[in-house]
What we know:
Strand 12 (206-207) and strand 13 (210-211) form a beta hairpin. This protein has 2 domains: 6-137 and 347-421, FAD/NAD(P)-binding domain; 139-341, no CATH class. The strands form 7 sheets. Strands 1, 2, 3, 4, 5, 6 and 23 form a 7-stranded mixed beta sheet that branches. The relative contact order is 0.16. It has helices spanning 17-28, 43-47, 79-92, 177-188, 212-218, 249-254, 277-302, 320-323, 331-334, 391-413, 417-434; strands at residues 6-13, 33-37, 97-99, 103-108, 115-119, 122-131, 138-139, 152-155, 169-173, 193-196, 200-201, 206-207, 210-211, 235-236, 258-260, 263-267, 270-273, 328-330, 336-341, 345-346, 365-366, 369-370, 375-377. By secondary structure, it is of the alpha/beta class. Flavin-adenine dinucleotide binds next to helix 1, strand 2 and helix 2. InterPro entries: Auxin_biosynth/cation_transpt, FAD/NAD-bd_sf. This is NAD(P)-binding domain-containing protein. Keywords: Oxidoreductase.
Amino acid sequence: MTDEMTEIDTVVVGAGQAGIAMSEHLSRLGIEHLLLEKNRVAEAWRSGRWDSLVANGPAWHDRFPGREFDIDPDGFAGKEQIADYLEAYARQFNAPIRSGVEVKRVTRNVGRSGFTVETSQGALLAQRVVSATGPFQKPVIPAIAPKTEGLYQIHSAHYYNPEQLPDGAVLVVGAGSSGVQIADELLRAGKQVYLSVGPHDRPPRAYRNRDFCWWLGVLGLWDTEAMKPGREHVTIAVSGARGGHTVDFRRLAQAGMTLVGLTERFEDSKVTFKPDLAENLDQGDQNYLALLDAADAYVDRNGLDLPLEPAARERVADAPCIAQPLRELDLAAAGVKSIIWATGYAADYSWLQVDTFNEGGKPSHQRGVGKEPGIFFVGLPWLSRRGSAFIWGVWHDARHVAEQIAIQRKYQQYRRKDEADEFASAVTPLNQARA
Ligand SMILES: Cc1cc2nc3c(=O)[nH]c(=O)nc-3n(C[C@H](O)[C@H](O)[C@H](O)COP(=O)(O)OP(=O)(O)OC[C@H]3O[C@@H](n4cnc5c(N)ncnc54)[C@H](O)[C@@H]3O)c2cc1C
């Protein structure tokens, strides 16, 4: 980029899956655009995931429509395979990506249309800006985290493998897909693991010979438009690790993991847990069983020939940590030397200095079309539906947003016939002069 103010129709910020999907649809519609990525293409999948992470959904499902993975379609792609896939996808249609360019500030122009986009490599002008900076931007460690010296504490975004941790027991706080998979990996590596379990959904990995991604598809649940009120803090515990298996907390407890309720507070070397473990596990079971019931009803209704699976309804006996849950743990006495905070992420829109946020600081938009004309979002959780933040879901949202951009361009380009004739006669002599 030069110091001159380059003008471009649409700037897309971020070249993860959301930015790449956006670019594909803009390209199809012939809309001039540029993707600016501060790191590398698909950086989150390269450096923001632990070493053994695989996709939560099978390869036939967790992908864009225009390309298949080069692995068994019922298998689960590893994080590097996903990053390679996204890179190859972007190459496939020559996505105009500039890597290593950070967007520092976007402001609305005064006295002319569009926005000024200030980057680490100079400024440019854009009629439109699409934020594709990801749903999981800043790892969040809650304020209750203890200040204890010598206690190794990291967010799940900075966990890579068991060898990274000091010897000794570990407390994993948070039991969504990240927390439960990391806790399982640490248990298998021979560590003593405490897992703090909050409210969660836990769909079966597969049931009656079909993956849960398929069930959510045929049951129309990926298309649910809004999260149920009060369920904002409910995570989904699902895993594609080791070929894929259902997350069953009671089995993990049988295997030696100590489950505890929500982590409440730390004082000196003591941590206190809420007395909600049994309730959280019961609600997770209810969510699991509800999907089995819905699947059975679907099979009956449609006369499908899918094998019965009664074993899926068997419940293992409660281990002592569930029957008599710990309310308090002395970390020093228990030999806990590390804490992994699998406690989610926050957004960072400090670079987007336009009027398109609600009072809570969240993007204000309708299916990705920002409140501020010319600003768009893709990749946000629940942007249009449950599938919105996932690889395959973002592609469909990006198509809608690209179509909205095309519509806005039409309005912007409109001239009354007499104005258009006037314009043409003003520029024709110039063109002829050049020719
Ligand atoms: C642990 C984990 C596992 C997941 N597993 C799955 C899964 O199996 N299947 C699935 O479908 N989904 C999964 N997801 C959800 C989702 O698919 C990923 O989070 C995915 O990375 C989101 O893609 P994105 O393009 O929206 O954002 P990102 O991949 O985060 O991409 C955003 C890009 O924007 C860049 N950027 C940010 N700010 C700027 C700036 N100011 N200037 C320039 N560039 C900028 C970043 O460098 C980044 O490359 C998972 C998420 C997590 C956290």
